[in-house]
């Protein structure tokens, strides 16, 4: 569809094979790729932005969690690690994860960036180096703390419990404008308050002259010597992935922003590119998360209020972060104990419930991304390290403390081998004393990193600090795979800050 000089193509627009030539081909339209595309067109470069998934409009969102996941997530939302089994969801749609995440924006803490620099031979990735990029992204997206009038009781109870215990907490900063507290972040913001990439950076890139090809599955990075010469693949039907026409985009530079699971698979399928270090696809880390539900005497009505509106970074140096949480009941039911009538009784308690979670900086828990035979989907080999397990159990105990301080009558921690319900702080002590194994925890991990990590030594990393592959002169990576280690907080703002720095470096090289 080309109207008023805007070139956004959807599956129905392709009636033949596509061959084009641009300055830069950007693969992936999530927070990394969208930022790169917009910054490059602002610098006067001709850009093609390629996205395997379709665009969505609010009329196409589905509030039912199961249906929404099947439409917007890879592998129908059922992707999981092997080793330690943990669900992990990656989006396949224009805007990437920004369409279906909770809009949480945190800057990676100074102490984490200092550690990255010291441990991974980096010289220019401290807080002062990234501040201009954080600031620019924050201003563009209107990142600000969630106002009290859209928090809802679920978030305010968390605040009250933290205050009672002397635990630092704060409203979450999010990329939203005019949030109504509808709690629909997970299934797509129908009010268009969430400033996802599909309504911010991507349209600005289009207005600047970029071509945006959706339903375009990149299957190969084309190279000659130390230079990338473009990308190639198939146009694929939304939801089914059925291939139709071929495409080839010739480019003077290529930026891979397909995500830390897809990018290493694409490198491997293209001839084991950028892997002289042997690190591509390795060092896979997550923010494994655990969650607890608290039941209160009075109605909480958790469906109202910002999806994730309050957080505590009090325990970051201890290795975990606490957040409020909401998800559609169909998704919550998967994590609830019981079945049949017992499960129906649990669901009947949801109006009186709040759900809070903890995500852990489990740096000892490392895995790898392996291409599946005959597929571009990855196999994710990952295990929760036994020494990281007590960290998550400790975090659950802290959540239980906050729940009881906020007035909960019952807490359900979701841990195998201990009671399904805890009714007091004394009973919650079992989370600190019982020997909990990795398989006893109900985990989820949607923040993933490090599979194409940056390192000052080309023998130990895939890219340099600017995101350029050590083995190539013009091949860049701009997704969370470039993180050298877990960032301790939600990664989106850091992905965008690093992507902006990469785009400026690339523009300066042309």
Task: Give an account of the 3D structure.
The chain has 510 residues and is an alpha/beta fold. It folds into two domains: 301 residues, FAD/NAD(P)-binding domain, CATH 3.50.50.60; 164 residues, Cholesterol Oxidase, domain 2. Helices cover 26% and strands 21% of the residues. The protein has 13 helices and 22 strands. The strands form five sheets. Strands 1, 2, 3, 4, 9, 10, 11, 12 and 22 form a nine-stranded mixed sheet that branches. Strands 7-15-16-17-14-20 form a six-stranded antiparallel sheet, with helices on one face. A three-stranded mixed sheet has the order 5-19-18. Helix 1 packs parallel to helix 13. It is globular, with a radius of gyration of 22 Å. The mean pLDDT is 95.
Key descriptive features of the protein:
2 domains; 510 residues; FAD/NAD(P)-binding domain; single chain; globular; alpha/beta; 13 helices; Cholesterol Oxidase, domain 2
């Amino acid at each position: 569809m080309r109207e008023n000089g805007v070139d956004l193509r959807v599956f129905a627009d392709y009636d033949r094979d596509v061959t084009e030539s641009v300055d830069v081909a950007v693969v992936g339209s999530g927070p990394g790729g969208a930022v790169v595309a917009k910054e490059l067109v602002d610098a006067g470069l001709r850009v093609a932005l390629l996205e395997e998934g379709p665009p969505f409009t609010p009329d196409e969102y589905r509030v039912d969690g199961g249906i929404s996941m099947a439409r917007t997530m890879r592998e129908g939302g059922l992707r999981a690690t092997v080793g330690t089994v943990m669900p992990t969801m990656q989006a396949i749609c224009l805007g990437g994860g920004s369409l279906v995440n909770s809009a949480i924006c945190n800057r990676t803490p100074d102490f984490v960036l200092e550690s990255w620099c010291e441990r991974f031979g980096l010289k220019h990735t401290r807080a002062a180096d990234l501040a201009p990029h954080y600031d620019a992204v924050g201003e563009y997206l209107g990142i600000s703390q969630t106002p009290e009038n859209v928090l809802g009781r679920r978030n305010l109870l968390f605040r009250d419990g933290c205050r009672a215990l002397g635990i630092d907490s704060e409203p979450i900063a999010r990329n939203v404008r005019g949030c109504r507290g509808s709690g629909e972040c997970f299934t797509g913001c129908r009010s268009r308050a969430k400033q996802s990439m599909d309504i911010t950076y991507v349209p600005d890139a289009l207005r600047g002259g970029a071509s945006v090809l959706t339903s375009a599955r990149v299957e190969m990075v084309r190279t000659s010597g130390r230079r990338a010469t473009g990308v190639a693949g198939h146009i694929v039907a939304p939801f089914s992935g059925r291939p139709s026409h071929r495409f080839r985009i010739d480019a003077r530079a290529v930026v891979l922003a397909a995500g830390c699971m897809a990018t290493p698979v694409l490198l491997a399928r293209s001839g084991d590119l950028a892997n002289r270090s042997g690190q591509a696809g390795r060092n896979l880390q997550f923010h494994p998360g655990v969650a607890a539900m608290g039941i209160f005497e009075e109605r909480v009505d958790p469906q109202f209020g910002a999806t994730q509106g309050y957080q505590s970074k009090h325990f970051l140096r201890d290795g975990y972060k606490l957040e409020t949480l909401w998800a559609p009941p169909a998704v919550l039911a998967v994590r609830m104990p019981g079945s049949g009538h017992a499960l129906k009784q649990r669901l009947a308690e949801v109006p009186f419930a709040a759900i809070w979670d903890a995500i852990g900086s489990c740096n000892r828990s490392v895995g790898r991304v392996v291409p599946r035979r005959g597929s571009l989907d990855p196999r994710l080999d990952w295990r929760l390290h036994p020494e990281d397990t007590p960290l998550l159990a400790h975090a659950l105990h802290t959540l239980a403390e906050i729940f009881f301080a906020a007035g909960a009558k019952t807490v359900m921690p979701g841990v195998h081998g201990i009671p399904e319900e805890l009714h007091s702080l004394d009973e919650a002590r079992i989370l600190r004393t019982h020997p909990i194994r990795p398989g006893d925890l109900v985990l989820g991990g949607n923040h993933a990193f490090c599979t194409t990590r940056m390192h000052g030594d080309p023998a130990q990393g895939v890219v340099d600090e600017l995101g350029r592959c050590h083995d190539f002169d013009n091949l860049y990576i701009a997704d969370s795979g470039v993180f050298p280690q877990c960032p301790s907080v939600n990664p989106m703002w850091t992905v965008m800050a690093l992507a902006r720095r990469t785009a400026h470096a690339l523009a300066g090289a042309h």
